[in-house]
Amino acid sequence: MSTEKNKLTTSWGAPVGDNQNSITAGARGPTLIQDVHLLEKLAHFNRERVPERVVHAKGAGAHGYLEVTQDLTKYTKASLFAEVGKRTPLFVRFSTVAGENGSSDTVRDPRGFAVKFYTDEGNYDLVGNNTPVFFIRDAIKFPDFIHTQKRHPQTHLKNPNAVWDFWSLSPESLHQVTILMTDRGIPATLRHMHGFGSHTFKWVNSEGAGVWVKYHFKTEQGVKNLAPDVAAQLAADNPDYHTEDLFNAIKQGDFPAWKLCVQIMPLEDANTYRFDPFDVTKVWSQKDYPLIEVGRMVLDRNPENYFAEVEQATFSPGTLVPGIDVSPDKMLQGRLFAYGDAHRYRVGANHQALPINRPRSEVNTYQRDGQMRADDNGGSSVYYEPNSVGGPKESPENKIAPFEVSGSADSVGYDHHDHYTQPGDLYRLLSEDERSRLVQTIVGAMKPVESDEIKLRQIAHFYKADPEYGIRIAEGLGLSVPE
Fold first, then answer.
1. Residue 438's domain spans which residues?
2. How many domains does the chain have?
């Protein structure tokens, strides 16, 4: 006799008498449409997969916390940094960018590094990568860039012609391309890589004074990478290698940790720095703006259910809290809309109410209805504002700090067009062995490109970054550096 606790029920809570046989007209059927348990079971099964993410489709996640180790309240009033020793719970999702949900973990690709902090004043999402820069610096180019990373509409195969055509026509991509093609393009595990907020953000303190800030997560496990042949073998033998490694490490009590540091730039420096500090294809020199330790992030608990926690987790750089704001970074500005909109399409208008996304602080909004509204939908409380019945009101002390804007509205790019100094500096920092592997990787990636025009155009970018860089790529492809 089944107890109430383990009694199988339908989704509406009624006991199921037979879960092995459908209701039929006689032993041979046909099946009766009145078998509502069968119909509900099949209909739900057809809907078990939400649309996968357009980018960052495959990921792994874990719970943990951030512990503050240094007082930075002179820079920000954000509650998660309020005092040394404070712990804020968080959830992290790591991911590859271009591949589908069933793709391999060990491909050469940037890794998403998204952190959701469940703070006292609402959720704060820091949605970055394992690289400090990105391929493009204006969101208007993002759909085109991602199209080049996807499959050809006719062959349904990956298309190196599109990849290198786009990169060769977008010289701002050179810095990220160089990083991607170095040894760090294939992390050994998700635990052995750094993370970055990538964009420039703004911190505001309790007096309303602001600074520009960049985030760095420094792995305490050390940076380790995979050789391409090892990565390829793992892709064949265990395409879920990174997912498995993270889960097992936490399960065994080997909790991965990162030191969270920031670079701080005075607001006025943005007008005089040697390049635009809001350009996400550039890094700030750590000689100019040294790393300042903030805290320590530790991952110590695995998800109980992958779909509910990792797949349904939604992150957006627009999920902000008092004391943290955005910058004029054109790529970031576009992401403020695009990420939330993607979640509303993929998971639903009420995605923030799901357990993995729900803030630990109280939520008081006038938003009502919509698909998958799982709470009391505001009950009988007032549903408009302003109102005279005591509904939630804005708190003026949490208004954004004012900032100046100027100029004529126009479609304009960044003034700074030096796309070569930083990739060249990176190339020259590499050891000879690292340079040789970089050249070998790029040559191997470019050989399938059918057009010599595309190859030569890209070689010119490498050459402008460093002549040796361009010459070695050209020689590897059996071409000459163009005049």
1. 421-476
2. 3
d(CA 39, CA 393): 46
* Residue among 37, 123, 129, 419 flagged as catalytic: 129
> Which of 56, 194, 351, 461 is flagged as catalytic?
56
Q: Enter the pTM of the model.
A: 0.93
- Per-residue pLDDT of 84-138, as tens digits, reads 999 999 999 999 999 999 999 999 999 999 999 999 999 999 999 999 999 999 9
Reply yes or no on whether 129 is catalytic: yes
**Residue whose pair of structure tokens reads 């957006």 in the numeric block:** 316
3-state secondary structure 251-281: HCCCCCEEEEEEEEEEHHHHHCCCCCCCCCC
Residue 194 included in any domain? yes
For the domain that residue 25 is a member of, what is the CATH number?
4.10.91.20
Task: Tell me: is residue 339 an annotated ligand-binding position.
Answer: yes
In sequence order, what DSSP letters do the residues of 22-88 get, joined into one string? --BSSTT-PBPTT-HHHHHHHHHHHT--PPPPSSS-SEEEEEEEEEE-S--TTT---GGGSSTT-EE
Separation between Cα atoms, residue 38 and residue 2, nearest integer Å: 21
For residue 142, give the 3-state DSSP assignment.
helix
Q: Is 37 a catalytic residue?
A: no
Which of 323, 337, 346 lies closest to 80, judged by CA?
323
Q: Are the C-beta atoms of residues 19 and 8 closer than 8 Å to each other?
A: yes
Tell how many helices (H) and how many strands (E) occur in the chain.
12, 10
Measured from the Cβ of residue 28, the count of other Cβ atoms closer than 10 Å reads 6
